[in-house]
Design goal:
Blueprint: H1 3-18, E1 31-37, E2 42-51, E3 54-63, H2 66-79, H3 84-98, H4 122-140, E4 150-151
Parallel strand pairs: 1-4
Antiparallel strand pairs: 1-2, 2-3
């Protein structure tokens, strides 16, 4: 990856960390799930509002490192308006990219590609994927009122 591209991706991550999109609690959510990474202390809650099969709204709150916060912010922007199946497919592709298993999928992720460099830092993969695992859990527990925390241990 070129130095200019690395710099662009870093600026996207820093922007989403400083000014996260969709950073608020959602009182009328259809489902939610908590994500916690006990190794580094990152923790967040993802709220989803579903209109049938479509994610009509999504938000998050929590604390953590720049990678986890930026990833959650980018994720909320990416999945809003998508179907459950589309969100799950994005989760699968994103996970494949950040773990380094499928780097070729980075081109299909739009702005989420900014987190593709995480694959070079295995300890940061859990930071980048925490919000995604919580979103996945929230979709699986669509009818849950008190979803059990998701751990990325």
């Amino acid at each position: 990856m070129s130095a200019e591209l690395d710099e662009l991706y870093q600026s996207i991550i820093l922007d989403h960390n400083r000014r996260p999109r969709n950073f608020h609690a959602m009182d009328d959510a259809s489902t939610h799930a908590e994500g916690k990474n006990p190794l580094c202390g990152d923790q967040l809650t993802i709220w989803l509002k579903l209109d049938g099969d479509i994610i009509s709204d999504v938000s998050f709150q929590g604390s953590g490192c720049a990678i986890s916060k930026a990833s959650a912010s980018l994720m909320t922007a990416a999945i809003k308006g998508k179907s459950r199946a589309e969100a799950e497919e994005m989760f699968s592709k994103f996970h494949g990219v950040v773990t380094g298993a499928h780097p070729e999928d980075a081109e299909t992720l739009g702005s989420l590609k900014a987190l593709s460099g995480v694959s070079r830092f295995p300890l940061r993969v859990k930071c980048a994927s925490l919000a995604w695992h919580a979103m996945h859990a929230a979709l699986l527990r669509n009818d849950a009122v008190d979803a059990a925390p998701v751990s990325t241990e």
